[in-house]
Structures are given as structure tokens and as C-alpha cells.
Known about the structure:
heterodimer; A: 302 residues; mainly alpha; 56% helix; globular; B: 334 residues; mainly beta; 17 strands
Amino acid sequence: MSAMPEVDGEGRAELMLALLADARLPTGGHTQSAGLEPALRAGMPAAQVPDYVRARLATVTRVEAATAVVARHVALAAGPVPDGAGSPPAGGASSAGVPDGVASAARGLADTWLAWTARTPSSALRETSRRLGRGYLRLLRRLSEGHPAVVALDEAAVLVADAPRADGVPDPGAGATSAARAVPGAGTDPGGRAATGRRAPQPPRPVVLGVTAACAGLSARQVARLVGYEDVQTVAAATLKLEPVDPVVATGWVVAAQPAIDALARAVADLTDPRAIPAHGAPLVEQWAELHSRTTERLFSA
Amino acid sequence: MDDVTRVGAYREAGRVRCDLRPGALSPRVLSAGRGTARVALVATRALLLGGDHVRVEVHVGEGVELELVEVSGTVAYAGRGRSASWDVDVRVDARGLLVWDALPFVVADGADVARSTGVALAAGDAHGAGGAALLRETLVLGRSGEAGGRLRSRTRVDVSAPGATRTSGGVGGTGELAAPEGSGPPWQNDPAGPEHVRELFVEDLDLGDDRALPGILGDARVVDSVLCLGTRPPAPASVPEETTAPRRPPPRTSAPFGPLRLDLDGPGAVARHLGASTHDAGIDVVVAAWTTAAREARAAVAGPPRDATPSPSVAAPVDTDHTDPRTTLLTTGA
């Protein structure tokens, strides 16, 4: 140990990857079964869990991973933290308005957000993702306070709130256009509440995760694998609480899914355009999610 | 071989003028009134064979209601190694409405079909509603006793500024002049960027080898959907057997719920039934209810602002012959 080492970007990225994949992360992951609970309730035998995992990795999880990959890519346009030290700089973004990089990242994030929304027809799945996104956002704000990408995400929320509803009918409660613009100064209010009292729209989990990946220095492939792994592990862990399965067997499922996770990562890692995000639907997953959201007797939230 | 079928319906001199171009399907006007038209689509030859690439382009002009009626469902036959495609490209201008209660699309054993449905709706502005479409899509995997071939069905619904050019180059050439550029001020700030287009619904159903996996289709053979686009259909109270939470005895089967309603994040919804056959689908009821609602919504806004639309006559006559020819058809199709 001679002098203080330079910031080790690779080491930090590796630690962040481990952290984000850890079920102990305080983001509410323990409330999730990745749709497994309603799937079992609908009659799927536990022996089919590996097939269920495969189905998800080819469909909804692919959309999720692609969204995170694109969000990461567009968030990078916001640029690095100004002083480069990785610590929250005093003041954050320049007070003289939003820098170009941040504005461009914000537009990209809003496009990504809207693209995900159009590819997620189930309101139950959208709601679950927003709820999880909230937990991730809380963490992101604390870990990367003042990072330009976080500022861009707040700006993106304003753009999404302003996006035309396309039916000529104003969004109920809309009108927080310029008023909300005062709010986004990074971390002003962790709840993301607009000045008007209306809640700013909550970004879905993959968008927040993509921004987190950009701040943490994760590669596109890392974030795609992370999403895939996280989904499989969520299913496997939830199975243990719902069915009599040996934990070692369930862990084996996760390892066995590795080729499918890698295939997913390869398929989405190069995406940069929100409109190119795949839209693979899984009709039964959507149906089960909707039914589950109206069920009171349940162990997992989703 | 040019297999493009075009149907355009435009307001002209107080009536609806239909602009038809036959392709693999032959469009025939059943009726045309002051604000509405009904057009039948009749197959001109055996469809759909391997190597067939059928394309249907529909353009509904401002303030027009167009109803498309099919006389028979479509069977995609074994292609002997050749794939087939079925592309539909729809554009609906402001205050227009397309109603297309399409008949079943059956994918026989050995068929390999790519379906794509592109819908571009004009956005609503402060003065009125945008374009709206009510589309039925009944995908049947296999005739009776068959497992069915491969099907990939893609849907992309965009809401675009009035006058924004449609990228796919589909419905051009119908001679309809676009609204002047810049007539949709809200779109200047649209985060969707220079395209002036916002995606409302994008879905890619890849129903190949993996479709039987739990979560995709399981053992369901039929994906029966109705898409209500550009307007939000009425509350699900009108849907019979609204899927209440499976309270005590959880159903131990994977499919037989009533039609499920998916509310899009925007003006639109999808109702979908997954099952072993279409006969048990409550989707017909949903189609009828949503169609009525879409017509009423259009009539409500189409009235005062511009040329008066004969709103009462819009709903009445078409509704009367809206009885369902599907049941008989299914027996021949599937």
C-alpha cells in the first residue's frame, strides 16, 4: 500500500455488479416472485419451473434487459461526474440550466421509458416495475447523488409527464409542466414529488437500473446478464417458499439457465435505439400478473 | 407478383368516397353514406400458401368511419418449406374510425407465417379526437386435430402528428393529401423526437417452437384479441364475468378465464382470450361493446366543430347487421 490508488473503475464496477445482484439489496426484491406465484396458482407444476424461466428469458425478461441496456447507453450521454472523483460534487449540475449532455440523456431516457411502456401492455406488470423502480431510485440517489445521469433521469420524468396523451384528453392532474421543472435538481425530494403536489411519474425498474449501471461503470453485457440472472434467481428463490423443493436443486436451475441468460445478453447488449427494444410478449405471464394483482391471498406482491 | 390490396375511404363532397385496389383480396363496397362506409374483403384465390406475401393497406380519411367485413377466415397452409407473410398497414386520420372484426387466421401444420400489423393513428388535438381503430385478431394454431405451424405476429401502433408521414411507405399513393406540416403543436416537444410519433403498443408474439412453454401460451391454441386503439374503451363493467380474483379454490387450469383486459398506458386497451378454441371466447361481447363505445365517442366529437357528421345514422344502421358470422365460419376454418 503505497499511495492512495487511482479510482479503480473496474474494481468498483465489479463490486457494484455484486451489490446489484444481491438479494439483500434494499429494493424490495423479497416481495417478488417474478410471476411464479400466480403461475403455480394457475396450475403449473413446480417441475416446469426451468421451462418457465426459459419462457421469461425469451420474452418479458428480454424486454426488461433490453430496456436497461438502452437506458444505460443513453444515460452515458450525460457525461461523468464533473470532478471525476466519484464523490458527490457540491452543487451537482451547473446552476445555469441543464447541460447539453444531460438534456440529451434525458430525451433518450424518456424515449426508452415510453418504449418500455408501449411494450408492457399489462398494467399490473407496469405497476410492479414502477414500484421496484422506486426502491432502486432511492438507492441510486444515495449512491450517485448529483451524477449527471441521475439529473437526466429526473429530467426524463418531466418529459414523460409532458408527453402528449395522444387522445386529446389531458392526463388527469396534468399541468405540472413548467412547474415541475423546478423540482428535478438532483435529490431535492427523494419521493420525486412535483411542486404542484402531483406525483411525478415513477420510472420503471429497468430504466433506473440502466442509469445505475451507467453511474457504476457496468458494461452493456453486464447489465443484461444482471437482469437475466436476477430474474432467474427470483423465480428459483420464490419456488422454495411456495413448493417443497431442495434449495440445491433450485440453485441448479439458476446455473442451468446460464446459456439462456448469455443468449439474452448477446441478443440485447448492442442495442442503443429505444425503438429497437424487442417487444416479445408472453400472454400467459401477462394474464397471470393481472389476476395476481387482484388477488388478496398471496405471499408475493408479484 | 403484386399482392397489395388497398382500401381508402375519404370524405368528398359530403359523402364517403372509397378508393379500392384489388390484390390478393378484392375489396367491395357494401354501403357508403355521408360519414361511413362498409367494405367487404373477398379472397380472390386460395390463401395463404407458401411463398404468398399478402399486404393490405387501409387508409381512413378524416372524419370517416370505415368498417371492413370479411366473408371468410384465412388458413395458412403448409408451405413446403416456403414461408408466407400477411402484412396489414392501417392509417387512420383525425376523427376517423376503423372497425375491423377480422375472422380467424388459422395456421395449419407445416405453415410458417409472419404476420405484421402496423397502425398509425393521427393524434387528437384540442379540437377533436384523433384516429381510432378497433381491430380483432384471432390467431388459431392448427386446424382441428393439428398442433399448428409457426407463427410470428408483430403489432406496432403509433400515434403520430397529423400530417406526419408514415415511415413504412404503405398507404401512400392513395391520393389523400396530408394535413399541413406543423398542425400538431404538442408534438414539437414530444420526447419521441423528430419522428413526431409515439408508440402506443408494440408486441411481438413469437409463436414458434417455444410457444408451449408455461407463460407464453402453455396448452392454449387460440389467441383471440381485440385491440381498441386511439380511444379508451368503457370500464370493464360491461365485460361479463370480469375476472375477479380467484378467491378460494384456485383454478388448476392454465387457460379458461374470461377475456382479460389489458389497459395500455395511453388511449387504448387490449382484451385477450387464450384458450383451446374460439367458441368459448367472450371476446365477441367485448368487440360489440367496444365498437359501440368507439362509435359513440366518435359521434360525440365529430359533431359540432367541422362539417356536421350524421352521427345518429352512423351508429344505427351498421349496428343492426353487426350480428356475428363468426361461429359458422369457425367450423369451416378450424
